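Students often ask why we bother encoding 3D structure as a string. The short answer is that it lets us treat folding as translation between two languages. Here is a chain of 257 residues written in the first language.
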Amino acid sequence: MEHEKRLKDRVAIVTGSARGIGRAIALRFAREGAHVVVQDLRGREAEEVVQSISEDIGSTALFVKGDVSAENDVKRIVETAVSEFGRVDILVNNAGISLMRKIHEAKVEDWDRMNNVNLKGVWLCAREVVPYMIKQNYGRIINISSISGLVGYKWESIYCATKGGVINMTRELAVELCEYNINVNCICPGITDTPIYVDVNYPLDDPKNLEETLRAIPAKRIAKPEEIAGAAFFLASEDSSYVMGQILAVDGGYTAI
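And here it is in the second language, the structure alphabet:
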């Protein structure tokens, strides 16, 4: 029996989708029938995602290189999606960066860089897609925050601030946009096996590091990117039609303690 494609002909922009969680979301949406705009600064890896969607999945995708913190780039990303596919139904604000800095060692440049990508980027992307979503009276905006926006993480004062901002921006946008049939929700992934976590923190293939990490997670394992993608699919699908302004922690029980 053929798989029912529940996002058939929907058009989705997934930022930061060359690898990690963004890549998993782009692939999951494509499997569900969506046309996917892959945004990233990593050209080679992003093109590989597009190739996988086209050749392995049989769906349609295109890569648009751009910086979500740059207004003109964001305009171009959204305009390209509309020019190619005629509409934008789903925006996943996944692009983000993380730097671990002690508060007394952090620089203003660190603050500016993380806020520009993690917070300003979410705002810019939402601002650009909303007029199209209002016109078509339909939209799904899914913001990827972090459990760092819900709890404190040592040496991550800036990152925690940006992710907390994404959470409350989600709530505001949900209230502001629900009258236009635009649902805005947020996912807070827990520790996930992605390059950004390994690059910023420490390799999880080191038994000592892995043991220390798992000790804090009730599920006693880290998440797979595909598990975050599953939550994103739910929020993009019609199953979430009455879900608005919600913060979904996908964290193996971490924030339940």
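Translate back mentally: The domain at 11-194+224-250 is CATH 3.40.50.720 (Rossmann fold). Keep this in mind for the problem set.
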